[in-house]
Amino acid sequence: MNHHRHQRMQIYSLLTLSMIVLARGRKILTEKPDFLNPCSITDRSFSSCFGKTVENIHTIWRNGVPGLKSVSSIDPMFVKRIGINQDLSNPISINLNLNNVTLSGLSDVKARESRFETKPLGVMVKMALTNLAVNGGYDISGHIFTLPVGGKGKATISVASAIARVGILFKLRENSGYTFTTVDDLRLDLQEVRGVYLNLDGADASQENAILNSYGDAIFEILRPTLNEVLSKLFKDRWTKIFNYVPADFVFSDLPPVKA
Fold first, then answer.
1. What is the pLDDT of residue 260?
2. Of the four, 3, 85, 109, 167, which is 20 to 30 A from 181 by CA?
3. Is the preceding peptide bond at 38 cis, omega within 30 degrees of 0?
4. Summary count for the chain: helices (H), strands (E)
């Protein structure tokens, strides 16, 4: 009786080990999804081809990547804290702390232009974004010329439209017989921002909103460098994990060989 029980335990242990190995093996995508079409980096159609790939990834994988639990959602994205501190001697000076922030609207992208570079190896994408929203708790202080600004509560910053210019640098590597385009660096820059609206929910919210939205574009320019930094880190996190999971020939059809 004990002998048979010991055999069953050995079988269960082997099955469990096999399942763990299989789960780890899924860190490489071995079957190309239908929405990924390899793009020739030398063909004139590269811009539209890779642009469609970017759009599909942002839409179809907006909630995460099947088989890759390490990739958080693309839309929405979550940030614990965003802090902006300025010199109080500036005519417009805003010190703003946002906490438990949700960034939404990043799945509905339209790629306007894509370009592949071989030296250094990388790609540039211009994406049109619409209906972006930043939501979270806020603590704001400062002034707009002679008007004081201050308060705490819940905040929403909405943007009707913007262009995100994303530059990605790659390094080629091989693993398990596959070539991968590992993300070495990623930078995002928000440009052509239109329709900025700030809505604060607090004790003096109506007065604060009126003041802030009178200078909405100027205030967003103050926020833009920090938002660029935050979005660059978030995009780099997602795209690094995706490109480490998806073999390069699922995305690019004629990359240069990996250097030994």
1. 59
2. 109
3. no
4. 4, 6
Judge whether 52 and 34 are in contact, CB under 8 Å.
no
Q: Which of 171, 134, 147 is nearest to 248 (CA)?
A: 171
Q: Which residues contact 202 (CB under 8 A, 6 or more apart)?
A: 151, 152, 153, 154, 208
Of 87 and 233, more confident: 233
> Among all chains, which residue has been given the structure tokens 């490109």?
243
Q: pTM to 2 decimals?
A: 0.85
Q: Alpha-carbon distance 229 to 80, whole Å?
A: 14
3-state secondary structure of 100: strand
Question: Do residues 127 and 112 touch, judged by C-beta distance below 8 A?
Answer: yes
- Tokens, residue 133: 């929203």
Please report where in the chains the tokens 């081809």 appear, as a residue.
49
DSSP state of 79: E
Residue 19 clears pLDDT 50, i.e. is over it: no
Burial 1-29 (b: 16+ CB within 10 A, else e): eeeeeeeeeeeeeeeeeeeeeeeeeeebb
**How would DSSP label each residue in 191-222?**
EEEEEEEEEEESTTHHHHHHHHHHTHHHHHHH
Residue 84: name the closest of 134, 126, 129, 131 by CA: 134
pLDDT at 17: 35
Reading the block at residue 38, the tokens are 């390899």
Task: Report residue 184 as tokens.
Answer: 């070495």
What is the token pair recorded at 208? 């604060």
- pLDDT exceeds cutoff 50 at 101: yes
